[in-house]
């Protein structure tokens, strides 16, 4: 069995520990800690991350971990690194929306090679390992996508908050003005991890997120790519370490979508 498939099995078990921690706390008081302008984490974000950290420390102690809530720990010289968002879609989760997920990836030299995204509310687990395909609840995924923007449903990231939000949101509004007349529908689901997984499952046709963090999209990137989709940054370069934006779609529309997003004026 491939080493990456072994890591995938480890990632699936680790994600399940996070789901168990979340389910154990649902319905109880959820303390909220502020992380900036209109950004926060719940106590269950921390509980889920701690559960995964404890599991991976036992299973793969030689591999460092980058988590959204507690940062990076472990051997900085390792070629591998776990990347975790314990609850992607925290705002959704805190408001009772089912659109949230645990997102866990393994990167190798900065590139995502294993990904698991587990959505507790829908009991769906998306998974993939480089060279071994993508699956939803163990059923293979293969998404080709449309060839014309007019028939597409495109998901965008949330509008910006915090410093420089006004300028960044003007750019988003400009992209919306260009896309709305040319696509079938626009969606903002509030979770980048599920955006990419829904793309892999054919529920969406395109995804654009600007100013995105690695933990939000690393797992979904592997899943989308292994389902046959293109995942790049806004320069058209394959998404990887250091990228701060993501554009994902099938080969038939990726270029057209990228051109609309990056057009001037």
The global form is globular
Which strand-content bin applies to the residues?
25-35%
- Counting helices, strands and paired strands, the structural category is alpha+beta
Total number of helical segments? 7
Order of helices and strands: HEEHEEEHEEEEEEHEHEHEEH
The overall strand count is: 15
Kindly, what is the distance between the CA atoms of the first and last residues, rounded to a whole number of angstroms? 51 Å
Helix content range: 25-40%
Low-confidence stretches: none
Question: Major beta sheet, specifics?
Answer: 8 strands, mixed
Task: Enumerate the strands of the largest sheet in spatial order, edge to edge or round the barrel.
Answer: 4-3-5-6-7-8-9-10
Radius of gyration, whole Å: 18 Å
**Mean pLDDT level:** 92
Task: Note the main attributes of this structure.
globular; 5-stranded mixed sheet; 8-stranded mixed sheet
Q: What can you see in these coordinates?
A:
The strands form 3 sheets. The chain has an 8-stranded mixed sheet with strand order 4-3-5-6-7-8-9-10, sandwiched between helices. The radius of gyration is 18 Å and the shape is globular. The model has no long low-confidence stretch (mean pLDDT about 90). It has helices spanning about 5-25, 45-60, 90-95, 165-180, 190-200, 215-225, 255-260, and strands at about 30-35, 40, 65, 70-75, 80-90, 100-110, 110-120, 125-130, 135, 140, 155, 185, 205-210, 230, 245-250. Helix 1 packs antiparallel against helix 2 (about 45-60) and helix 5 runs parallel beside helix 6. The chain has about 260 residues and is of the alpha+beta class. The protein has 7 helices and 15 strands.
């Amino acid at each position: 069995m491939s080493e990456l498939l072994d890591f995938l099995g480890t990632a699936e078990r680790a994600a399940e520990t996070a789901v168990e921690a979340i389910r154990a706390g649902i319905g109880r008081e959820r303390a909220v800690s502020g992380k900036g302008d209109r950004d926060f984490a719940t106590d269950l974000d921390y509980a889920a991350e701690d559960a995964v950290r404890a599991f991976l420390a036992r299973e793969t102690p030689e591999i460092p971990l980058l988590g959204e809530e507690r940062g990076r720990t472990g051997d900085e010289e390792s070629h591998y690194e776990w990347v975790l968002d314990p609850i992607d879609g925290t705002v959704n989760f805190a408001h009772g929306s089912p659109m949230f997920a645990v997102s866990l990836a393994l990167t190798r030299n900065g590139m995502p090679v294993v990904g698991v995204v587990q959505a507790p509310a829908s009991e769906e687990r998306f998974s993939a390992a480089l060279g071994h395909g993508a699956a939803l609840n163990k059923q293979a995924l293969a998404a080709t996508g449309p060839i014309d923007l007019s028939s597409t449903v495109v998901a965008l990231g949330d509008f910006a908050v915090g410093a420089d939000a006004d300028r960044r949101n003007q750019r988003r509004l400009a992209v919306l003005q260009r896309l709305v007349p040319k696509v079938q529908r626009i969606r903002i689901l509030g979770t980048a991890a599920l955006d990419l997984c829904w793309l892999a499952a054919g529920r969406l046709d395109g995804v654009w997120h600007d100013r995105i963090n690695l933990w939000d999209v690393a797992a979904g990137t592997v899943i989308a790519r292994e389902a046959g989709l293109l995942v790049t940054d806004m320069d058209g370069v394959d998404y990887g370490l250091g990228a701060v934006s993501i554009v994902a779609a099938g080969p038939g529309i990726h270029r057209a979508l990228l051109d609309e997003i990056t057009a001037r004026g």
